[in-house]
Structure formats: structure tokens, C-alpha cells
Request: fold
Amino acid sequence: MNTAVTTAAGAAALLLGLLLTEPLRRLALRHGITDRPNARKAHTRPTPYLGGVAVAIATLVAGAAIARARADFDPVLAVLLGGAAIVCVLGLIDDLRQLGPGIRLCVETSMAAMVVLAGGHPTVFGGAFDAVLAVVWIVFVTNAFNLLDNMDGAAASLCGVIGGFICLTVPADGPDGLGVVMAALTGACVGFLFHNRHPARIFLGDAGSLFLGFTLASAMMVLHSDTTGLSGPVSLLLATLVPTLDTTLVMVSRYRESRPLLQGGTDHIAHRLRRLGMTVQQVVRFLSVLAVAGCLSATLVTYGLLAPGIALLAASAVGVGAVRLLLRIPSATTASPRVAVPAGGPTEGFARAAVQLRRSGGSGRRPRAVRPVDVPHSREARKAATLSRTAGTPAAPQ
Reply:
């Protein structure tokens, strides 16, 4: 991998992402493409979407142009970027007019199947079953990032961490241009963060969150396409540990509360950490540190320095423990009016939340209906019928 080329791709995408976001923000405001405030949201003025379009354009233009200029543009990479562009358009249409989950899943599955057919997949069981699992995993990560985009700077920061690790771990004999594209994606996320960090001036929207998830998942699948056994799947799981935990937490929480699994709410990791008294910036940093730990573990497994079986058992134990612990922090649908973001530190906040949960009998699946706590809400609550709806709504002002 040519370090100078990847650095140039990252720098070019950073600059493009930084410069393109502002005119797209003004365009969104002019045409009313905004997340409008209401009683369940913390922001006080319409905040535009289309930030994800800037990230996508910066990634596609910088990555493809530099890879093509060096004549190392792999046909598999063309399929990957083409599928990512189509998924971005799908998300943009959903931002402009609500789409049903069936249409979204159909398009996402088709694009994921194209990537798997063109770029391959890890071999675990052998036969077509591995290909099916690969397609399902890409679609899962795509929508997991859509769910994860529920706080200022969270999705872009995590994508920057994971994309940076992928860029650094692409071997010299790996897919031509993959490192360049990952460097471009990382740079575009960093450039966008200048506008999206708390308090955000623009959101990714579905166009951005779906693009980030699909591009990362597809790139990791292509990178590990020649692996056999557990090492490939375990590396993929560890690298996407944070979005996987967040989606698992949300699904379990909604099942326990007898709510539709696709209905929105403030039951994500970020929202629960906010209830412990952490600021938005602290939450994003904490999630980024977890992503770094997961990516480091994935790198050790990839290079044979950590046994995949041991890594899988450790990750499963950590994941189950984290979900159980986070479930003790009430979601907005089960919290009492007296539960609010505590004035003390995280330990004090957790203790108060746990005590209140015990008082309300929170272990059952039918908690009594009470007024939600005052925490930031995302578009997931506004579009409750759609699949995995969040778009980076900012947290409550400090």
C-alpha cells in the first residue's frame, strides 16, 4: 500500500467533505429538507439533512479519482462504490419522502449480493450458505449504522475509526485501491465532523448513515474474502462491535417493553449513557474508544496474534454483560418522571437509574406508561414505522 497515495486520498476527501457540507446545508434549509423540532427533541430550530450527501460525494470522487489515476482501480471496487452510491440515493429518497422497510431492504440486499458475488466472502461452512450469511451481515451493518446515527458526531466518528483501521490493515497484495477508498471515507468523515460535532449544524440523514454502513461492511467483506474458518467472521464482528451492541440492545429493550421492534425510541447506548450524566462529547469519545478496542482486537485476530475462538468468547461475554448492564438504565418509555439526567457523575447516575428501575418493577415486559425523561430524541421517534430510523439528532444542550 502506497502511503503517499492513501494520505492524498484522505486529505482530498477531508477537504471536499469540509467544503461541500456548507452549501448543501444551505440548500437543505432553502428547500425545507430539515429535521423540525418538536416537544420530544432538544434542538430548537430546523436542522438540515444532506450532510451524508457531502460525505458520499467526497468519498466517491476522491477515492475513485486517485485510485483510477494510478491504474489500480479493481473491478470489485467499482461494484462496491456503485452499490454504495445506490444505497446513498436510496437514503436520500427516504429523507425526502418516507419509504417502507420492504423497499429499503430489497435495494440493500440487492446491492449487498452484488458485492458478495463480485468480491467474495469468508469461507466458514462452505457452499452458498456462506454467501447468504455475508449478504445478511452487510445489510445488518448498513442498518446498524442507521440506528447508531442518533447523536451529534457519533456515526461519523465511529466510521472514521473503523475506516482508518481498515485502511491501515489492507495488505500489500490486497484488493487494489481498497485502502485508498477507505482513506477517502475516513477523511470525508473527519471533514464532515467540523459541521456535525455538538452542537451539530447539519445531520447525516439516511443518505449518509446508510452509505457509511454499507461502504464499511462491503469493504471489510472484500478484505476478508480469502479467509477460512473463524478468523474472518470474528474479525468482522470485532471491528463492528459498537454498532452490533447498539442494535442488540435496542432490539432486546423493545422486546422486553412489548414495543414493535421497528418503532423508534431513545433506548440506544448513547441515550442511556447520557442518562448517567455524560455529556455528548464524552459519549462520543467513549464509543470511539470502544471502537478502537474492537478494531485492535480484530487486527490481532487477522494477523494470527489472537486465537479467533478466544476472541469470540471474550467478545460475547463482554457484549452480554454490557447489554445486561445497559438494560438496567431505563429507556424513555419506562422511566419515571422523577428520573432525569443526574447532576452527579456516571456512577451516581447509574445508581439512581437502577434504584428507580427496581421501584417501577422494570424487569417485566409490560411497564406502566409514564412521561418520558428529558433526553435527546432522534428522527426515529418521528418516523416510527420505518426501519432503523435515526439521523443524528443532537443531545440536550449543556
Notes: The first strand starts at residue 34 and ends at 35. Residues 39-43, 335-398 have pLDDT under 50 and may be disordered. The beta strands are 34-35, 47-48. Residues 3-30 form the longest helix (28 residues).
